[in-house]
From TrEMBL:
Listed transmembrane segments: 20-41, 53-74, 80-101, 113-131
Protein name: EamA-like transporter family protein
Organism whose genome encodes this protein: Oceanospirillum linum
Pfam family, one: DMT_YdcZ
Keywords: Membrane, Transmembrane, Transmembrane helix
One CC-aspect GO term: plasma membrane
Record's keyword annotation contains Hydrolase: no
Keyword DNA damage: no
Length: 132
């Protein structure tokens, strides 16, 4: 993730900003995945099966675009260590919520004191990295 953020941040400097860099990144990624699908002779998904997916199952690309644009914007401002520490801490908090609710195919794991302490320790690490 830090290398990708740095690469996209550099592209943002040469392409009028993080949004253009993100678009270019996704186009390159889409072409690469299309080549892999063709080379691996992957079977095309059935439309009827895709129609059965819940609406939120289609939002992964939006989340990816938000991540790429955000990291391209933040990388030169925060540095790799602080940015990744913040991302990891935020992802861990959301992971606890997803586990607790058992949402999006995750098995249920209740939030407990140990999990909360783990998150607090990670946020402590973020503070140590940011304000060393």
């Amino acid at each position: 993730m830090p290398v990708q953020s740095g690469v996209n941040s550099t592209l943002a400097l040469h392409s009028s900003g993080a949004i253009w860099a993100s678009l270019i990144s996704f186009v390159v990624g889409t072409v690469a995945l299309f080549i892999v699908v063709i080379a691996a002779r992957q079977q095309w998904p059935e439309v009827s099966s895709l129609k059965e997916a819940p609406w939120w199952a289609w939002t992964g690309g939006l989340m990816g675009a938000l991540f790429v644009a955000t990291s391209a914007f933040l990388a030169p401002r925060l540095g790799a260590a602080t940015m990744i520490a913040l991302f990891a801490a935020g992802q861990l908090v959301m992971s606890l919520v997803l586990d607790h609710l058992g949402w999006a195919t995750f098995p249920e794991h209740n939030i407990n004191l140990w999990r909360i302490l783990g998150v607090l320790m990670l946020f402590g690490g973020v503070l140590l990295i940011r304000f060393n």
